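Sanity check

After download, print the first record. It should look like this:
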Amino acid sequence: MKKLDVRLLRLIKHSKGQFFSISIMVIIALTIYVSFNMVSDNLYNSIYHYYEVTNFGDIFIEVVRVPKTAIDHLYTIEGIESVQGRISADVPLRVEDPKEKVRVRIVSMPNEEKKINNLYIAEGKELQNNAKKAAVLQQFSDARGIKVGDKVRPYISGREYPLDVISIVGSPEYIYLMENEQTLLPAPEQFGILYVTEDFAQTTLGYQGSYNEIMIKINPEYAKRVDGIVDEIEDQLDRYGVKRIVKRENQLSHSMMMQEVAQLETMATSITLLFLIVAAIIINIMLSRIVKNDRMSIGVMKALGYNNLSILMHYTKFSLVIGLLGSMIGMVLSIPMSAAFTNLYIMYMNIPMFEMALYEKYFVYGILLTSVFCIASGLIGARSVLKILPASAMQPEAPKVGHRIWLEKIKFIWNRISFSWKMVIRNILRKKKRAIFLILGIALTYSITMVPIFMSTVWTNIFLLQYGEYQTMGYNIDFSGPMDDSVIREVRQLIDVDTIEPKTEIPFELVNGWKKKAVSIIALPENTNFYHFENMSGEKIFLPRDGVLLADRLATTLGVEVGDDILMKSFLPNGEDTYINVKGIVKQYLGTNAYMTIDTMNTHIGEKGLITGVLLDSEDEVVTKLKDVKNIKQVQSIEDMKNSFLEFMDTMIYSVGVMMIFGGILGFAIVYNVNVISISERVMEFSSLRVLGFDKKEIYKMVSRENGLMAFFGILIGMPLGYSMCKGMISSLAMEMVTIPLIIENSSYVVTAIATLSFVVIAQLATIRKIYRLNFLDALKNRIS
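Expected structure tokens:
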């Protein structure tokens, strides 16, 4: 082994605390980079392999009723490869607890051998042409303990139908199981899918020879003209009452999964770069200090014949070893970590054929990435060796000229500061670069820690804003179809009602130039008690007598502003397309809807006295009394949604904890390394203080005060930085159906500050031995071994 390499090992041993703390940061960076990218690729490839095996559809259409002949006629549209009709309806499911509200979606399966959205059989047999059998979606069966051979009892059109469970299945349409876009969180124990034969669905739901949904596969050669195909489909089916047409990219489960893939890729890049940049800065500062301390040794090496390149590479190897060690350990740890994340996705998302593969390219990219960062920081940190001359290196470096700091000129303040605090302030301002780095490091720690604390309150805020301020009803009841508004009296007879209001919810396609969006327009009484609209400035506004209010995300999608006219394209049979004026843009946190008065809706659809549901407040047992009532499609209880939300919050604690650990490691590494560097640079200063009568405890107290003061300023800077990070997080998590409000509670700032101070204190305690073990007598002798 070369002499310089032996010296390198001694150097690593001498600064092993810093060496390993920086290595841990590199390990975390590589572990996250490799594991997150591998999970992202595995997730994406598994999803599309699953789609291929199950023949997942490209276009999904909801209609009022369409005959089979009209479905077959769609083959005349160029680019359509296959078409399939089916029947779908949400109905109550009878369970043991009569107070429990469970709903299932009845979905028919055709008799054809090659099906669109085919089922993946996890257990049991394929669904045969037997009216008394059903296949149950796996997430629902797991949540409720349903097994093959059990009976399920859907309640359809006022009658209970006992069905034998013939199989447990997966579906590409419900990898991520949610009832609809308005649902806050998945609740597989309260909502599931039952697949039945086409004959059973047509008989029980009244669709003999007809369907209410169509699925379409597009020839891959025509993938780029899907929008044109959709327009042709809409024209052909116009008379059958098209409710909405959904392309695969907008299908609920698919869009949620693609967003998950995108988030993994973003986190893999951003977190990795953050840790590597901080590690590189610390390496740079540390090597600068080592080179400065080794000034005489470097002079001796040059006198003995070592050239600049050899000495420069000697110190750069220090950072390279950190990079290589961190890369190797990080790659090893990334394998079990990616497996753990994979199991997490398997647990919460139903992808039966999840492919777990290792991608060598990410190992190579990871090594190259860390090597570049570490070598670059090593070269920059050790570049001062080029300026050291053997002759001048034999002499001690001239001390820097002292001068007063700017605060000393303000006598009114300076004279009131104690002697110990004057020393603290002088030390901070004397080493401005080191102080700035530590302050910014603590600010970064604060901001990183704030993000998970903020995210832990996001869903709470969305829930409270959506169902506490924006919508204040206790129950949202949907009918099976449009009904006369006299039905309100019947609802009053069935339950005790405090307040009740009608609503009409009808899908339209809103068009502004080339931009268009299919949405549900909700019509309410002009002076509704249950909806409280606010514009983007937070001012309360009311439903206009003519015109429409748009949710903010919908207005952004359409590119419209207040005062613009937009086209309302009706999906109703023989419905007329009309223009309407945008009277306001309102905040909406879940879903994207448009709002108008019932009178305005009646004018546009040419009907009077029709409603599709009611909103109400009641202390009565509404769900129990209405769940079996004919023509009631759904009874949505806000209290039930709250309970589901609280269960979900338990799982949020783990992700918050992981992110806080990352923030803590980052903060510890920054404070620990800066402290160690500071102590090494100030050995002579501390020795002089010992001669003047300071004991080790007082010196440690002085260093603690310096860190405490810099932590204070770091936290102050970290607050706006954390706010900006949370804002950026919201942008990266932007979803079409969810608007995340940027609301950071005062308690979040306090909790983040406490957590950050805890990380600083832990790092401070880790350096206490450095001060207590300093040999002050040797330092005063000014010898270099």
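If your output differs, re-run the checksum step. Summary of this record's structure: The first helix runs from residue 3 to 14.
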